[in-house]
Design brief:
This protein is an all-alpha fold. It has two domains: 149 residues, Ammonium transporter AmtB like domains (Ammonium transporter fold, Orthogonal Bundle); 189 residues, Ammonium transporter AmtB like domains (Ammonium transporter fold, Orthogonal Bundle). The protein is built from 17 helices and two strands. Helix 4 packs antiparallel against helix 11, helix 11 runs antiparallel to helix 12 and helix 15 packs across helix 16.
């Protein structure tokens, strides 16, 4: 079967991958191009540079919570507009690279500020999202030349955690009950069985496991909803089937680690152990490395590390009442990306050439002794 090719249906081909033809059509239309950039920014949270992916993901957030959807929209609009006002690289803006940190800021502050639909909270979201754009440009200037790695969601983490720390001193604006300083208790007893409610422990069965996996996908976007997780997976699938597969694998890995080590069953059910592992698996499993059996195993290993780091970072920040956010993903992924120059068996994708895992496989130059997964010549 070597050399056999398949041609996607015209309708599917038009929305597949990064949709370059669609992007070119909007170049002379600033308004639609801005909307397109914002939608790509939402998709770039999970490395999907595709406006349809972004639209499906944003729709999932609106379905999960009107406030979550609105705050995410405000965040991506503010961060993308800030990049335009600062005159940052236009191709990066059009690819959504200056929108995803702001979108996450909006989603995060919607979760950690109260009450919902508060005008003051919206003002904070605009300011912190704009600051995340400045941080993104600054960190990229440092990390890309020095280490050859992107800043990922570090700008979102730094900006959001700094704001939440500062908010303890604010007279106006209330933090939600989820921000509650507490000292870690050594050997504290928790219900380790997967459970949907704290007052109803017990094994929820196969349906509960599926819920936990889908919530592990959705929690990257602060959505505690299996329905949202399914719609987000559909959004990933539009752009990349490989990425969608690794999203599921990563969420499963995070859940399994929680069950094996005896993590809180309530947290595991609601996807809190899964989301860092999920996005980590996508990053390593085809986005920054060309997919091969080695990079696939590395993606699973990195997902395991991200799950342990979720526990470690969560414990470290618990006395401050702060969440781990996506710091575990950043730490695990950056560690595995920095080794790219030392690992001869891995085919790293140049940052300026990152598109989709499928495109990377088609265009990559094979390494000696390394066969890409699914190579039609095998």
């Amino acid at each position: 079967m070597a050399g056999r090719t398949t041609v996607a249906a015209p309708a599917l081909a038009a929305i597949d991958g990064v949709m370059p033809e669609w992007s070119r059509r909007l170049e002379e239309r600033p308004g639609p191009a801005f909307v397109d950039s914002c939608l790509r920014g939402v998709g770039q949270i999970i490395f999907m540079n595709n406006p349809i992916s972004g639209l499906l993901i944003l729709s999932a957030l609106w379905i999960a919570s009107g406030w979550l959807g609105l705050a995410t929209t405000i965040g991506v609009l503010a961060s993308t507009a800030t990049a335009l006002l600062l005159g940052l690289d236009r191709s990066a803006i059009r690819g959504g690279l200056h929108g995803f940190n702001g979108a996450l800021v909006g989603a995060g502050l919607a979760t950690f500020l109260a009450p919902e639909f508060d005008v003051g909270a919206m003002v904070y979201i605009v300011g912190v999202a704009a600051f995340s754009t400045v941080l993104a440009a600054t960190l990229a200037r440092i990390l890309v030349p020095a280490l050859g790695v992107p800043p990922l969601t570090l700008p979102f983490n730094f900006a959001t955690l700094a704001f939440l720390l500062a908010a303890f001193a604010f007279a106006s604006g209330d933090l939600a009950s989820t921000i509650e300083p507490q000292l870690p208790a050594l050997g504290a007893e928790v219900e380790t069985t997967l459970q949907a409610e704290s007052d109803a422990p017990g094994d929820p069965g196969a349906e509960g496991v599926l819920n936990a996996i889908l919530r592990g996908v959705a929690q990257l976007f602060f959505a505690d909803s299996a329905v949202a997780g399914a719609l987000i997976l559909a959004g990933i699938l539009v752009c990349s089937r490989i990425a969608a597969g690794f999203a599921v694998v990563g969420s499963v890995v995070g859940l399994l680690v929680a069950l094996v080590v005896g993590g809180d069953g309530l947290d595991a059910y609601h996807g809190l152990w899964g989301y860092n592992s999920m996005v980590t698996a996508v990053a390593i499993g085809g986005v920054f490395y060309v997919l091969s059996w080695r990079s696939a195993l590395l993606a699973v290993a990195c997902a395991v590390v991200a799950a342990f780091l979720f526990a470690a970072v969560g414990t470290l920040l618990a006395p401050l009442g702060l969440p781990a956010l996506t710091l575990p993903f950043c730490l695990a992924t950056l560690a595995f990306l920095i080794l790219k120059d030392e690992a001869s068996g891995l085919n790293a994708v140049k940052l300026e050439e990152v598109t989709t895992p499928e495109a990377h496989r088609r265009l990559a130059r094979p390494l000696p002794g390394v066969t890409p997964v699914g190579d039609p010549g095998t």
